[in-house]
Write a structure and sequence with these properties.
- The complex is a heterodimer of chains A (279) and B (557).
- By secondary structure, chain A is mainly α.
- Chain A has 10 helices and 2 strands; from the N terminus they run ββαααααααααα.
- Chain A has a two-stranded antiparallel sheet with strand order 1-2.
- In chain A, β1 and β2 form a beta hairpin.
- In chain A, α3 runs antiparallel to α7 and α6 packs parallel to α10.
- Chain A starts with 6 loop residues before the first strand and ends in an 8-residue tail after the last helix.
- With 557 residues, chain B is α+β, with helices and mostly antiparallel strands.
- In chain B, the strands form 4 sheets. In chain B, strands 1, 3, 4, 6, 11, 12, 13 and 15 form an 8-stranded antiparallel β-sheet that branches. A 7-stranded antiparallel β-sheet of chain B has the order 2-5-14-7-8-9-10, sandwiched between helices.
- Classes of the chains: A mainly alpha (279), B alpha+beta (557).
- Chains A and B meet through β1, α1 and α4 of A and α11, β19 and α12 of B.
- β1 of chain A pairs antiparallel with β19 of chain B.
């Protein structure tokens, strides 16, 4: 490529003049500052400027946990293990982080359509900013969970640092699904409804409102193919029992999730230039 | 004198007298009639229509008047056509044109009142063979050739033989082009097509039509020099665009004697710091002897400027209905989603200093092309090379209602590609320009419409990219702010190394652009002289697709 050329656009796509290491560092720093700005702006616009924004963030998982607790009381006729409410609450907080992020992903690019149709703003930065916003909102719910757990006799413990392992596994899956559905959602506007259904079913196939022990033994092999059959119990292990969860499955999930995310990001990079007609 | 003669100086005194009358602002019919009668005798031609000989009442009686505008007789002769807003008025004289030989139409018209670009005169009622008259120029529609006018009262002579059309303005030959085809009817038509933006009035003092079996003579005034003399003068002015416009109005100017001067003009175009008119250079080189052109190209192979944007044969194909592209019923049937070419094989260059205006009717593909240059729309054929960083200036990028003006400034700057540091550096100037004062910290949703548009405009025009691309000129706010905004827009354009602007503003293209691109249904109709592009654009707007024979339609603004 001609060195004086800034960018060449052909039917195969766009190619840019190669960046020096200094330029790359500057670009990355600049993108990082943009992501932070978008996260701050979106948090303010979605949460802090709303009358009930922060209140909803804090209270919604507790409310959902109560609903699930009530349903399981009825379905299992009170035959529940001790600390069932906290079990459900922990699952709900972490599951809603995944569900809200993935469910909203198909409309991520549509909500920035004016930006994407008129500028070359990085779709990767937008996706990361979107995940960042959802993560920030999740942190609010997590703080309330810790407070609630303390009140229920499970005060914060140094073992909480182990949370990084299941969270990494969950984040890698979320990254993959978010990028995949965000890309697909740019082309199929009504995808969001379908994704909602999938995450809804997935929750009930995961040990969120019931313990894994309830699954008949002959199904366990298949059941453990669900990453959340490892991730959700891991959170409980750490928060309630202060123990290090089995790391091997979490490590495997993280690696597979990251590989899939890499593929999805490549797909997004190729799809970006076709967004114009669809979003 | 035969029309093909390059020497224009041997005409009888009549042409000179008519020119004298027109330049003095004389509108007396009797004076013109006397001169025209002399000329009629010299040519032994036949008068088939005359307002001079018989008075305008007689000829208005013979005319069919159509449309909702008005045509009023003037006491001193002639008539006044008026079209308010979208009204149209058409005067149509059946049998006024004898199609057997050459036809000459003489018209004295006053261009003081506004006719915009909306007065069409056709010798056979078809759009292709019409002359469009504006307050500043004449355009022969068939070839989109433009003649610039210097006076408000002009005596126009339009001569059409089966193979050639010639136009004289105040007795000076201004256009001579080869044409094909015969006149389709014997109808002379004058159309004034109204415009929403203004009331129009065409004041025609006199009109007459002659016919002759041979060629007309003596239509020029005696002082007219040769075409080379005139071209020589234009070359001396150093305006390459004007030279090209002149060349576009003649098929048969021998450029050999002027080769050296033209080469000097071309050399100068490489050093002028106001863009590079590649289209004009190509046009002049193609008109020069092949060896001269080849030698010039060889000599400048290394010092031709590098374009900021190079667009080569770009085709953009879009889906007719993108929403259904991924519908399961289409995927299961392996049905290909129907597409159309929004832009087809378009090529142009934008050099540092250039201001390129892209014009065309709605749906022509202008905005799509602009987005493709920014890499926002995939192309199917060709290539686009950018040698500097472009920015498509867009108002209202990523604005959030809940955020304050100040937060929105930072967010919009971020979406425009600026780092937070760059946004911080521009912040104060944006706030000051927007005149929002303490409201800058209030949520955007509480702003009035005027405040919103002021803020949005201030943000969009704060940046200084190398290549500015604009989809329509931006403006905002009340009248006071609009003037300030227009000045800021001018400054923004002046600051950029190169500008590409999609616009419907004809004055902007004519006054500010040094090159223009006209698109029509995705096809490149004209790339080059802003005057030629605007001429063709207006014809497309007023009379539709020029490849088909359709009647005039009302102006669409």
């Amino acid at each position: 490529m001609d060195k004086s050329l800034y960018k060449k656009i052909t039917p195969q796509g766009s190619t840019y003049a190669p960046l020096t290491w200094e330029d790359s560092k500057r670009t990355m720093a600049s993108e990082w500052s943009k992501i932070r700005l978008i996260v701050q702006s979106e948090m303010k616009s979605k949460v802090f400027e709303k009358a009930l924004g922060i209140f909803f963030l804090a209270i919604e998982p507790i409310f959902m946990a109560f609903v699930y607790f009530f349903l399981t009381q009825i379905l299992m006729r009170g035959n529940l293990p001790s600390g069932q409410f906290l079990n459900i609450y922990i699952a709900v907080v972490f599951w809603r982080w995944l569900a809200k992020t993935v469910d909203g992903s198909p409309v991520t690019f549509a909500s920035y359509s004016s930006v994407l149709k008129q500028t070359n703003f990085s779709v990767f930065s937008l996706i990361l900013a979107y995940i960042g916003v959802e993560f920030a909102m999740f942190l609010v719910a997590l703080m309330v969970l810790f407070l609630f757990a303390t009140m229920m006799g499970y005060p914060p413990h140094p073992s909480y640092v182990y949370l990084v392992f299941p969270m990494m596994a969950q984040l890698s899956i979320m990254l993959f699904l978010t990028v995949l559905f965000a890309t697909a959602g740019a082309f199929v506007r009504d995808l969001a409804g379908g994704v909602n259904v999938i995450t809804g079913i997935w929750f009930y196939l995961s040990p969120g409102i019931y313990p894994v022990e309830r699954i008949p033994e002959q199904y366990l092999t298949y059941y453990y193919l669900n990453p959340f059959a490892h991730i959700l119990p891991a959170y409980r292990e750490i928060i309630l029992r202060h123990e290090l969860p089995p790391l091997w499955p979490l490590f495997l999930i993280t690696v597979i999730g990251l590989l899939c995310s890499f593929g999805a990001l490549r797909l997004l990079g190729r799809a970006r230039r076709h967004f114009f007609s669809f979003i | 004198m035969n029309e093909t003669n390059m020497n224009r100086g041997a005409a009888p005194a009549t042409g000179a007298r008519i020119r004298e009358l027109a330049l003095k602002g004389q509108t007396d019919s009797a004076l013109y009639n006397a001169q025209l009668e002399q000329l009629l005798k010299v040519n032994n031609a036949k008068r088939t229509l005359s307002t001079y000989e018989h008075g305008s009442q007689h000829w208005l009686d013979r005319a069919e008047v159509e449309g909702d505008g008005s045509a009023t007789l003037l006491e001193q002769g002639g008539f006044h056509m008026v079209a308010m807003s979208r009204e149209t008025v058409k005067l149509n004289w059946q049998g006024a044109v004898d199609r057997s030989g050459s036809v000459a139409m003489h018209m004295l018209i006053d261009l003081s009142s506004n006719i915009d670009h909306n007065l069409y005169i056709s010798m056979d009622g078809t759009k292709q063979r019409s002359l469009r008259v504006s307050n500043k120029s004449l355009t022969w529609v068939e070839t989109a050739s433009v003649i610039h006018l210097e006076n408000k009262l002009v005596f126009i002579t339009l001569v059409r033989s089966p193979t050639r059309v010639s136009i004289y303005v105040n007795g000076t030959l201004k256009l001579r082009k080869k044409i094909d085809g015969e006149l389709k009817s014997d109808r002379l038509e004058i159309n004034l097509l109204g415009d929403e933006s203004a009331d129009l009035g065409a004041l025609i003092h006199g009109l007459e039509v002659w016919s002759l079996d041979g060629e007309f003579t003596g239509l020029e005034h005696a002082a007219s020099g040769t075409l080379q003399d005139e071209l020589n003068g234009i070359i001396d002015s150093g305006d390459l665009t004007e030279v090209c416009d002149f060349l576009a109005t003649f098929d048969d100017v021998d450029l050999a004697p002027l080769s050296d001067k033209l080469i000097v003009l071309l050399d100068k175009s490489l050093t002028v710091n106001k863009g590079f008119p590649d289209w004009g250079v190509d046009q002049i080189l193609s008109a020069l002897p092949a060896e001269t052109a080849a030698a010039w190209r060889k000599r400048h192979v290394d010092d031709l400027p590098v374009p900021s944007v190079k667009v080569e044969g770009v085709t953009i194909r879009l889906f007719k209905n993108p929403a259904k592209k991924w519908a399961p019923q289409n995927l299961l049937r392996f049905r290909k989603a129907p597409t159309f070419d929004a832009v087809s094989r378009v090529s142009f260059n934008v050099y540092p200093g250039d201001i390129l205006g892209i014009i065309g009717a709605n749906g022509a593909g202008k905005s799509t092309l602009l987005k493709a240059i920014n890499g926002l729309v995939p192309i199917q054929e060709g290539a686009i090379s950018l040698y500097a960083k472009p920015l498509l200036l867009s108002p209202g990028l990523g604005i959030r209602d809940e955020l304050s003006g100040s937060e929105n400034i930072r967010l919009a700057c971020c979406f425009m590609g600026m780092s937070t540091k760059e946004a911080d550096a521009l912040y104060q100037s944006i706030v000051e320009f927007s005149e929002l004062g303490e409201f800058i910290n209030q949520p955007y949703k509480f702003y009035s419409d005027g405040m919103k548009s002021r803020l949005v405009f201030s943000i969009a025009t704060a940046v200084a990219p190398d290549i500015i691309m604009l989809d329509e000129l931006l403006n905002a706010g009340d009248i006071g702010f609009q003037q300030k905004a227009a000045r800021r827009m001018e400054e923004t354009i002046d600051r950029a190394k190169a500008v590409i602007i999609v616009t419907h503003s004809v004055p902007f293209v004519l006054n500010r652009c040094n090159k223009a691109l006209l698109l029509h249904h995705g096809q490149q109709m004209v790339y080059g002289s802003p005057h030629a592009a605007v001429a063709r654009y207006l014809d497309i707007l007023r009379i539709g697709d020029l490849s088909k024979t359709t009647e005039f339609v009302a102006a669409t603004g």
